[in-house]
Design a protein that fits this description.
Number of helices: 1
Strand order of the largest sheet: 1-2
Strand content: 5-15%
Distance between the termini: 37 Å
Largest sheet: 2 strands, antiparallel
Helix content: 10-25%
Radius of gyration: 13 Å
Number of strands: 2
Order of helices and strands: EEH
Shape: elongated
Structural class: alpha+beta
């Protein structure tokens, strides 16, 4: 059986819009490299303010 990980042990990165750190989530496992924003609100603010998303 898999062990539970503490939230402090999960990888984090800063939000592109607000700069606050956010932690990895299971639903982002496949797309962690492409996740740039901590929430839908920051994503909306980041795209409205002219921040360009990397779509490589």
């Amino acid at each position: 059986m898999a062990r539970m990980r503490k939230k402090a042990d999960l990888p984090t990165k800063p939000c592109r819009a607000c700069g606050r750190p956010f932690a990895w989530r299971r639903k982002w496992a496949r797309d962690w490299e492409r996740v740039l924003y901590c929430s839908d609100r920051c994503r909306a603010a980041g795209t409205i303010s002219g921040a360009k998303e990397d779509r490589a």
